[in-house]
Structure formats: C-alpha cells, structure tokens
Amino acid sequence: MTATTHNQTIVDQFTRQAVPFSNKTAMSSDAIFNLMCEMCRITPQDTVLDVACGPGLTACAAATVAAHVTGIDLTPAMIERAKLRQAELGLTNLSWQLGDVYSLPFENNSFSLVLTRFSFHHFLNPAGVLAEMKRVCQPGGRVMVWDSVPDADKADAYNRLEKLKDPSHARAFPAEELLAIIRESGLTNIKTASFNLEFAVEKQLTGMFPNPGDEEKIRQIYLENLTNDNVGMGVHKRGDAIYFHYPTMIFVGTKPNEESL
C-alpha cells in the first residue's frame, strides 16, 4: 500500500469515526490524562504539539495546564470536532492545523513538548513521524509516544484483528520494538509506564466501520479468545457482554541539548 492510498484510508475511516471517537471512553478518562500530564511533566510554561490530534481529546487535556497547545491532524472532520470540543470547554489557548504528520509544517525547535497518543499503529513509517516530532521539539524538551503494545508472540494475531476492526490500522509494535524505535531516534532519559484500556466489544463496534462482513469475523475471534487468548487482550465476559483490554505503554524521552548532539 502506498502512503497516499493509506492516507486516504485514514481520512475515510476517521471521517466516519469522528463523532463516536470524540465521545468519552476509556481512552479519555481522567486517569489516563492524569498519567499523561504526570509522565510528560506538563507545566504552565509549556508549548505543546499534539501530533495526529484527532478530535482534540489529548490537546484539550494538555491545554488545561500548558501555556498553549497546537493540534495537527490529516482528517478535516477530526479538526472540526476538536474545535467544537475546545469551544465546549471554553479553552482559548489552542490552535488547530490540517496537515500531514510526516512533514510537520513547523520550524525546528518550536515546542517544549511534542506528543502523540494512540496513533503510531496507523503510521506506515512511525520512525519517520518520530523524527519529525523530535525535529520540532526544543533541545531539552520532551517527546511522548503512547500506543498499544501487543505481546511479541501474539502481535500478528492482534494486528490481524485490529485491521479487521479498522482498515486504517497498519501495525502495533510490541513494547521492545517500539522502545527500540524511540531509542534509535536519539531521544534520551526514556521513561515508560503501562496502562490497560478496557472496552466492551459491542459498544466499541458501534463506533467503528470495518469492511462489510468483517463484524462477524471480529465477534468470532473474541468468542474464541474467551478460552485461548491468542490476541493477548484478556478477553472475558461480564454478564452477557464480552470485554477486552488494549495493553498500552507510554514512552517519554528528552531531546538532547544541541551541544551534546
């Protein structure tokens, strides 16, 4: 798949997902944003860039602390949802930009904190995006990547399932692989924390748009995983509902000062 074709798939999927994605879920709980602010050490002096900002959940959470936050995303419908969320919250210290995250339209060293949340598994070249994130980060600033991290021995099955649910899914990396990408970028003092996000299968499917016929395949995989856990998502039942969790990890590294590069 070419980058252009993949980007078209992302825009198609997230145009349709814009409204359900902006609703409060496990991905937008107070606990998850508190952990983000703590790990990133967000302060009132920070200027923040949220890469692949979606409907502005992360950017708006950061803006409650930081001096200013900029969000950039490829999908116009997501930017519109982000602007609505900003207005609903009455936040004035945010700006939004439509753009391709592989070539960020910002000068070198523009932000003290550059972050992205639950986006890396959509990138065909995550190392390229990370290089751009580091470029626009100030020396001594922080870069955060937060994404799902399947077990290494279950990653193939995990990724097959996620691509059925969302055709714009590219690949989620096991923690060791994602950490290697982050280290190879040149970021230092990398700190990590784990966090599981629980969802009900049927509730999640109401906000997703798999290809025709794939919903039943998805349900069947979850049913099978009640006993074998091939996808490593802790599939279980509560009452009649099937639940699962995303194993995720947050990585925060520091861009070295220029004199040490």
| Percentage of residues in helical conformation | 25-40%
Can you tell me the overall shape?
Answer: globular
Contiguous low-pLDDT stretches (5 residues minimum) are: none
State the distance separating the first and last CA atoms: 35 Å
Q: What is the overall pLDDT average?
A: 93
Assigned CATH class: Alpha Beta
Percent of residues in beta strands: 15-25%
Q: What is the rounded Rg?
A: 18 Å
CATH architecture: 3-Layer(aba) Sandwich
Number of domain modules: 1
Major β-sheet profile: 8 strands, mixed
Secondary-structure element sequence? HHEHEHEEHEHHEHHEE
Which fold name corresponds to the CATH topology? Rossmann fold
- CATH level 4 superfamily: Vaccinia Virus protein VP39
Give the count of helical stretches.
Answer: 9
| Quaternary status | single chain
Total beta strands: 8
Task: Give the class from helix and strand content and strand pairing.
Answer: alpha/beta
Fold topology:
Layout: H1 3-22, H2 30-40, E1 47-51, H3 57-63, E2 68-73, H4 76-89, E3 94-98, E4 111-117, H5 126-136, E5 137-148, H6 155-165, H7 175-184, E6 188-200, H8 201-205, H9 214-228, E7 236-238, E8 241-254
Parallel strand pairs: 1-2, 1-4, 2-3, 4-5
Antiparallel strand pairs: 5-8, 6-8, 7-8
Helix pairs in contact: 1-4
Can you walk me through this structure?
- It is a single chain.
- The chain is of the alpha/beta class and 261 residues long.
- It has a single domain (3-153, 167-200, 246-256), classed as Rossmann fold (3-Layer(aba) Sandwich).
- The chain is built from nine helices and eight strands.
- It has helices at 3-22, 30-40, 57-63, 76-89, 126-136, 155-165, 175-184, 201-205, 214-228; strands at residues 47-51, 68-73, 94-98, 111-117, 137-148, 188-200, 236-238, 241-254.
- Strands 1, 2, 3, 4, 5, 6, 7 and 8 form an eight-stranded mixed β-sheet that branches.
- The longest helix has 20 residues, at 3-22.
- It is globular and about 50 Å long.
